[in-house]
Specification:
Helix content is 29%, strand content 18%. It is an alpha/beta fold and 457 residues long. Keywords: Signal.
Length: 457
Amino acid sequence: MRAILAILFAAALLTGCSTVPDQQYQTAGFRDKSCSLNGSGREATCPPDSSRGEEGQRIERKFSVAFLEYCELESAACKAPGQLFAPGQLQAIRQRIESANAAGQATLVAVYVHGWHHNASTEDGNVKYFDHMLARYADALARAGRTDIRVLGIYVGWRGELIEASIPSVFTVADRGRAADRIAQGTVAADLATIAAAVQAGPASSRMLVTGHSFGGRLVSRALLPKFRENYQPLGDKALIVTLNAAIGADAYYDLYQDPARLSPSAGKPTWVNITSLDDWATKWTYPIARYVGNLQPDHPEDDSSGRTIGHFGPYKTHQLGFANCNAVGCGDPATLSGLLNVDYWSPAPFHFFVLRYAVETGADTLDMCGLVREYPYNQKAVDAMERPGVCKDLVGSESPFTGRKRYPANGHLWNIEADKSVIDTDGLQPTSTAVHNATTQTNLATMLVRLLYAER
């Protein structure tokens, strides 16, 4: 089978399918930008549209964007795989953060590493929707009363696709996975550490958020896991690492789950959050098949964890997360729901019900989103306990299918969360046939991550 796919892949290259160049697309430095959001923060227009719609005046949220671009191949433009095409990009980022520090300006530095099919081209869909992501971080900060913090976005680009034609590109899954591995062995970890050091030196309320999606989650994992095994805050105590629908085998995390010295009987507040949609077919089905037929070498071939991605391997899951729109389905007594607004849902507990309230500034109806985060696995006794409060019953469901013992890796600081599609979806922003896997712009998730960044850990 592997030989057949190799022949098909070679045929695709030889029959008119042009290859995507391994190149730099963006210049160094930040660009100041903004988007407008509707009153509930769930619809963004980028660039901003200040027109009055059904929900009233839109709200403008400002941010700045810069790029870091890594080469896959050694060439005249790049010294070695995993190096920056233009080191000046990193220098400009560091200087901007240091200038903000000198002026007493707090920053939220949001780094995003894209995945399969993407790069740093201005026409790339992830580049376009990166603005939507940053607008939501700025909005979440503003709604939390932190309007003094400037959002600085850093888009990390690499050659996430090899072939321009869409159909033959399905054969590049394993090849692009190996490319992510090679790039991760370069200067990515050191460059992120340089940025983190600048953030650490800034005002007390400065923070750093590093997000990797799909093969970007693989790249982030390969780059930072070695340091994470030694230090559960590899980028400092102001940083949070997030991997979304990460296309990497569970066995890459094997050491964290198998070494008793790294396991905890209870969860702590996370410094690394891995979130995977239960219905994400790309990491649930496509990746395991591609790993086998495309020769993606497992980290621990002798272990059961080698055949599944980190988000779909039951024994390694630590939590579940889901949301219900209380304006669409009844979530319970309004007074009880109001009492859930200030729940510290990132604190360790068997479960938390909580409410994210999006108050519309122009006086229209408020949008309440009820959330449930619970430790995994859970039994019928836990289900009964979750039903007693009488709120958000649609989220409770039944006993978890996996009934093994709870294991909290990295001494409780790694949360491996199984999410329903309400957590990683598009909010109507990204027209795509694979919305669950490709979505990275989500109002609820942005709100939760900002809350975690500023929680005591």
